[in-house]
């Protein structure tokens, strides 16, 4: 006989569609049947379904669903919700304090860099990264690049945080001198503040590693295509669309399937080690990690 598990979830409507949460309703696994229930963090929990635990992207709910813009208000609402869950003894997966550690890309880069290792001839590394807060002269920018072992081509990525100025806007830059731009940072001034990260050709494939408790799964998604040295003009795109199924972007190939599977071209021993190292550092039961493979060096980033 199946044991019923009531799973509450807090996130935005858009994220519900993206993650296909409705597909998990009444799903069965290991002798359990999981029923999914939306939870409103602004409504007293006693008036809602009593769940066994709650999964969440609670900051996304307040920022994208309710479109709140006051940082302190958002943090107070989240803390109140967490306090109420603790009072009525409903676990939150994962703890908000743990989620906070991964909101900023600089924090994530630091965590990944502490997990670097080599196994079976494969290196696991964090891409060289630094932060840009304002436009700066080319001489200074190139100096910072050298100090961080970074060169062209590079990507710009949103800095992250609770209320990021840009959440999905990214760009790739190939040269210091591009017609129509006064400087390197002029090429992406509309995206500042942002993170600068080394870009690697990776065959247009992005591996999404999902860790659920002690198990992990991999999904292959479309990613940015490989570029040659002739590319000059910057490329601008939104990360939330480029890896979707049936993406028609010129920067992304079409991949027929992104079905989740434990079988992929990635080395199983290496993935096992990545998972164990991250779980030792973070208080997480649900982790999502993007992996690309630099095909010229067989390095995982």
Summarize the structure in words.
There is one protein chain. This protein is an alpha+beta fold and 301 residues long. A five-stranded mixed β-sheet has the order 2-3-1-4-5, with no helix packed on it. Strands 8-11-9-10-14 form a five-stranded antiparallel β-sheet. The chain has three domains: 3-93, 3-Layer(aba) Sandwich (Rossmann fold); 104-127 and 200-223 and 258-300, ATP-grasp fold, B domain (D-amino Acid Aminotransferase, Chain A, domain 1, 2-Layer Sandwich), CATH 3.30.470.20; 129-199 and 225-254, D-amino Acid Aminotransferase, Chain A, domain 1 (2-Layer Sandwich). It contains eight helices and 17 strands. Mean pLDDT is 89; it is low at 255-260. The chain has helices spanning 13-19, 58-65, 71-87, 96-100, 105-113, 138-147, 239-242, 268-281; strands spanning 3-10, 27-29, 32-38, 53-56, 92-93, 117-119, 122-124, 129-132, 154-158, 169-173, 194-198, 205-212, 215-222, 235-238, 286-291, 293-294, 299-300. It starts with a strand and ends with a strand. The chain is globular.
Provide keyphrases for this structure.
single chain, 301 residues, alpha+beta, Rossmann fold, D-amino Acid Aminotransferase, Chain A, domain 1, 3 domains, five-stranded mixed beta sheet, 8 helices, globular, inositol-1,3,4-trisphosphate 5/6-kinase, Inositol_tetrakis-P_1-kinase, magnesium, ATP binding, EC 2.7.1.159
